[in-house]
Structure prediction request, 856 residues.
Amino acid sequence: MDAATEKITKMQGYKLHVIETDKYKTNTLVWRMKAPLTKEDVTKRALLPQVLQSSSAKYPTTTTLRAHLDDLYGANLFVDLAKKGEYHIISFLIEIANEKFLNDPTTLLKKGLEFLAEILNNPNISENKFDQETVDKEKRTLKQRIQSVYDDKMRYSNVRLIEEMCKGEPYALQVNGEAEAVDAITSKDLYDYYKKAFSEDELDLYVVGDVKADEVKEIAAGLLQFEDRTPKKAPYPIVQKRSEVNIVKEEQDVKQGKLNIGYRTNIKFGDPDYFTLQVFNGIFGGFSHSKLFINVREKASLAYYAASRLESHKGLMMVMSGIDIKNYDQAVGIIHEQMEAMRKGDFTDEELAQTKAVIRNQILETIDTSRGLLEILYHNVVTDKDIKIDDWLSEMEKATKEDIVAVAAKIDLDTIYFLTGSEAER
Amino acid sequence: MEQIMFEQLKEELYHEKMANGLNVYILPKKGFNKTYATFTTKYGSVDNTFIPLGKSEFVKVPDGIAHFLEHKLFEKEDGDVFQQFSKQGASANAFTSFTRTAYLFSSTADVEKNLETLIDFVQSPYFSEKTVEKEKGIIGQEITMYDDNPDWRLYFGLIENLYQNHPVRIDIAGTIESISHITKDWLYECYHTFYHPSNMLLFIVGPVDPDKMMNQIRENQAKKDYKDMPEIKRKFEEEPVHAAEKKQVLKMNVQTPKCLVGIKALHVDQTGSDMLKNELTMNVLLDLLFGKSSDHYYQLYNDGLVDDSFSYDYTQEQGFGFAMIGGDTKDPNLLAERIETILLNAKNKGSFTEEQLERAKKKKIGAFLRAINSPEYIANQFTRYAFNEMNLFDVVPTLEGISVGNVESLAEEVIAEERFSVCQVIPNKS
Prediction:
């Protein structure tokens, strides 16, 4: 097995993580910024990276900035937002060719890091605010991005489930923030927030590729320096168990109903039974041999997809399926039966062994890609733990039937959300 | 077994054509955990009129049958092949495109066993009336899912506009009505016609020993009794060069309008290096006109006509092809007009400079390196290229050979109003 080693160095204001590997034709640079998820900041956090990546002092228009990236053999730059538990995470990702595969000896890694530093350190500002034109354009695009969730019904129903399930908790917020909050953000506000984020967020730089950790450290130290900080911890909201299941049905003009069911697992990454929960999810709905796929799709022919997934840092499990509107009761009934079977330990040793084999495979495949590897390693930053990839594998292997039944007993059904067609149009 | 080296990319590829005609390629990848294998037949949704094996008359099969067959091949008398793969720690899947049906697995252990399972399940069909009927419910939901997806509807709406007769205009999954006509006999007829090893390609990429693996495949195939296969006879109706419809507007439950402009391709009879050069030149042309470092993109973004959903793409296969440009927009009519104007102006001499072309080529070369980090990309694209008599690893040298003159003459030739079409999705409440 190739479970790459991560070399972590404390730098000025951030941590540098280097993974040396010669598997790839490119080098990957990821800059991550983590802060508690709050209604007040989330929209600014969605806008900020878009403004930073669209121009800088040296490249004052998107056209000049992108032309520079094209010249660096089409280095690709994009930003990504995520919620991990009660935290909001901004990522800047640059993937740049490794020159040893080119007929051109330019040292691209250094140029990539210089470019990253340029967009983080030298934004396009005048008089202590971001360039007005850039901010206006990116505000327009952000509103568009928030609105577009509505048009993708699979995403929409997933977002709506979380909104209904976590009402009143920060987690109900969307990664892109709130459409109503966009207009009020001025370029001065955003610039102030930029300074705040770079002095308070937890910052991490990941570099993966055929690189030398010492060299990367030297280059990074010269380019990126910030004040030292103690990252803020997000308070974990106390959630009362519901006395009865929250059922939400929403009517829209859709042909297929989207059924999304949310459970509180009461288990988070870093808890002793977290890896058992992974195995639980694998038997229940994570794969094409799982109970949901077999019973909702293969046996009852009700759906094309029927699966479950975990939100590891929030302690949620979400089931999703697309079904004919008239089959709501039958589908919900079958899903409840599968959960009941899990609680009773109604699964074979073979299902257990099969699930472990597939999870092991999934983890090993994930770390074959630089981004997948970073996702797994970043769990440790979110929870301030040091769990190695080997631990993921060995802990998961240990899960017994009794452990899984014990995990099942902790899982509470919370909310059933159904996006349904309107009767009049049927 | 032949060995092919790619010095610049530091890759080596192994190839052998089996006695029954099956082409096998193995690309060892050191340092990776995962082995990824695809077993692909040159048979997709467009192959709907052909002479079945052992018959003499053309038949037209129900829409969506290639995709239906893909689903059903996983089912065997003693259960589901997905189960078999997951017991062996593998993850299996399949997909059907216009021109190909691919079966695949990835695994980090038990690779020989999984490879055996892949080859054997694809080469032993088992269809029954009962399971065929049951699948109609599942695929029915797959079709309904796409019906609610505005981007899918927009994409197929545009192809429908561009093509008058060619079956590329038919949704790959068919319709609920068309799949209702599918029977087990139809499935066997398609299977026997298109799943002969000589119409297929097996590609394996991962930390494997090519000699051992090639031996395993050779032995596996030698055990099976395949007769020589006559050439497959497909039929396609005559297709005009111009777009069938100028415009189509779909009303859907969306908040943001969408607009795609399409160009119907020329030279769709090409194969081999001509096709590769044409395809890459077309991609470079689109990059020059609409890439993020282009003035046009800057103007469109500044004017609020496009957002980050804006994209462009070129598809070319034997018998059909199209370029598509567009995305979400507040003003779908104005966006269509602007894209068409940009395209028509590109025919003017002096539209492209040497410097812009060099930059676009560098960008493409970098993107290619990024892409070949992915075993999935290598296996799937290599197969597609091979079916069109091209070589994936010729991409970089071919790109390097593109001149400003090539781009100009392609623009001059392919861009024509009669080959344009527009498809829009607009909110049904407006």
Remarks:
- The mean pLDDT of chain B is 96.
- Chain B touches chain A through 71 residues (CB under 8 Å).
- DSSP finds 15 helices and 16 strands in chain B.
- Chain B has two domains: 2-222, 247-427.
